Every structure is written in structure tokens, then in C-alpha cells.
Amino acid sequence: MKLLSDQIDERELAIILRELEKTLMADIKGDVVEFGCYVGTTSVPVGKRLMSTDKKLFVYDSFEGLPEKTHQDESPTGTQFVAGELTASKKQLIKNFKQAGVPLPIITKEWFSNVTPDQIPETIAFAFLDGDYYRSVLDSLRLIWNRLSPEAVIIIDDYANEALPGAAKATDEWLRKHPATIRIEHSLAIISR
Q1: pLDDT tens-digit map of 4-59
Q2: 188-192 and 148-156: which strand pairing?
């Protein structure tokens, strides 16, 4: 499958799909969430894999691009990331799902800070968090943490990306208060409770 954008590379997508496959093979209870779906670069392949299961895919995005940076997001190598960068439309996301022949996910158009608990599945088996910035990653973790199955897997994009240091800062801060196992592969943090 050709990547829909350059926001992840083929290796990262392979890692995400491998970890999703492990979750499915272990029959972990719950649905799948993606915070920061953009044009569907990861959610379309994830949705395709879920077609043979009873799991639902929930995706969340403002479709307004990146929010404002906080001081935790500042990096001399990340000056290209500014508010409004990476804007995508919900219409384009839907088009990409339809062109791939993949059923539409449950789409929530909202800033992560405004997503409410009733918009989150009751139980989550797998989560891909691609919020880029400190506050977005923390907001995502707050929303999903108490809904995770005991053996659920969370993947956080850009954890090892020096241009987006907020992702690692938020993850590390969260894990100091919510212990879990973390390993880093490529630029991704893979977290197991």
C-alpha cells in the first residue's frame, strides 16, 4: 500500500501494523483509536486490517492542523512546525478510506482537549497517538488511559523526534505517575501496561 503522506515512513507503518497484529492475535478486548489521523496515512491501513475483526476504529483530529506550541515543544530543529501546519480536511480523509475500499471509521472532528469521554470507546485494545505536541499527547493519554484493556498497547509517534520534543516530554511525564513498560523503536514509543 502506497503511503498517503510523508508523516510516517514505511518502517514506522510496519511497526504500527506489527504491534496491532500482536494485539489482535492476543485477542485483547476493545476497539482501536487514533489521535491525529491527518489524511489517513496510518488509519486507512489500520482500518483495512480491522476489516476481518469485530473491532471498531475511532479517529480524532481537529482537521485544522497543528495547535499553538507550548514551551515544551520548542526545538531549534522543529521551527518548520507552526500553528495550522499539516491541515487536512475530513473530506480528504473520507475520500482516502473510500478509494482504499475500507469502511469509514468513527470520526471525531475536535481538538483533543475538547474531546469528551462519551466520544471514546468503553474499552481500548490499541491506541496510536500522533499529536506531535506536548499538550496534544497529554490530552490523548488522559482520555484513553482508564479505558485501556489490561494488555492494551499504545504507540506514540515522534517520541524520538528531536524536532518535536513535546511528545517525549508528555509521555515521560505521564509514565512517572502511571507506570508502564516503554520501548523505543525508530521514532515510536511502544507502551504496554
Answers
A1: 555 677 899 999 999 999 999 999 999 999 999 988 999 999 999 999 999 999 99
A2: antiparallel
Q: How far apart are CA 91 and CA 88, in angstroms?
A: 9
Ranges of beta strands (E only) in 63-165 are 106-109, 124-129, 148-156
Instruction: Supply 27's cell numbers.
Output: 485477542
Contact 106, 59 (CB under 8 A): yes
Location of C-alpha cell 496534544: 136
This prediction has a pTM of 0.90
Class of the CATH-defined domain 10-192: alpha beta
The whole-angstrom separation of Cα 167 and Cα 161 is 8
Q: Name the grid cell of 153.
A: 498497547
Helix H or strand E segment including 56: none
Q: Locate 5 and state its grid cell.
A: 503522506
Residues 127-169 have pLDDT tens digits of 999 988 899 999 999 999 999 999 999 999 999 888 678 899 9
Sign for the CA dihedral angle at 95, 30, 10, 184 comes to positive
Asked if residue 10 lies in contact with residue 3, where contact means CB atoms within 8 angstroms, the answer is yes
